[in-house]
Amino acid sequence: MSTIDMNNFAPPVQQQQNPTPVASTDINKRSRIIVTEESPFPSLFEVMYTDTEEFPAIINGLLRPLFVDYYGSKVEIVQNKQLYTTIFFTEKYGYDYQNEKENGPYAAIERIIKKDDKQTADARIQTLNHLSSYGRTKLFKLTYKAQEMLQDVIPDKFINIAKNKVDWGKIVYESSALLMNGMGQATPYVQVAVDVNKILNKIYGTTAEGNQWQYMISVNNPIAPVATPHGTVANKWQLFITRVSTIYAQNIASQFGFVIGSNNMGIITK
Fold first, then answer.
1. Residue 237 CB neighbour total at 10 angstroms
2. What is the DSSP string of 136-169?
3. 166: closest CA among 174, 178, 179, 157?
4. Structure confidence by residue, pLDDT tens digits, 155-203
5. What global pTM score does this model have?
6. Which of 19, 105, 151, 195 is deepest in the core (most CB within 10 A)?
7. Residue 29 clears pLDDT 70, i.e. is over it
8. Are 109 and 143 in contact (CB under 8 A)?
9. In a domain, 188, yes or no
10. Is residue 235 one of the residues assigned to a domain?
11. Residue 60 is assigned to a structural domain of this protein
């Protein structure tokens, strides 16, 4: 008959259970969601706020480094809240046109009649050919370099694509302004009408990371308008510049059954 030696008997070992995990209350020790590469946000559009005083400064930032005689720009609100944008040049006295730097900046304007050839027959013919619509003789013309470069920002309606020619006579004007020095001196300016959307394309680009952008400018409310007997006058207006993704716009349109660039004959034109 077998017996059990109680001195050598050990109770069965109980398996230790892991404690129930408890979320740490220490914000520096808790587990986190870590993203090593963020995904791009599929933005349909982006909006920028500016006004008719700040926006010309943006235009100046693009053009002033390119031309030694660049003076400034002006954004005006005309009929039906449309934008009319002009850039201005003024003569840079003493500029050496013959030794212009190859990489710029360049002169945008030059005198039609040089001081030393006023009495020549060619000079008199040029004077007759450059009469303004008011019967006054024009003093300046755009240089060939300026014509080449500014063609990138000229409104399409003034460009003859077939002839690759710009109707400069309809967008280049001369004007003058009195200097505020008490002497009544007038400074002549050459002003050129430009396409503000093309300028936005140059400044902010039309493609980025596989996207394509188009720009639209909306004129909002006047800033600090002044009531006059002839109506409300404002020298400063709010502007909202919207950058629209054409790729996402096409995708959204297709979800609703529209195809951008098509017509009711099923002809795709995009």
1. 20
2. PBP-EEE-HHHHHHHGGGS-GGGEETTTTEE-GG
3. 157
4. 999 998 887 789 999 999 998 876 555 555 678 899 999 999 999 999 9
5. 0.72
6. 195
7. yes
8. yes
9. yes
10. yes
11. yes
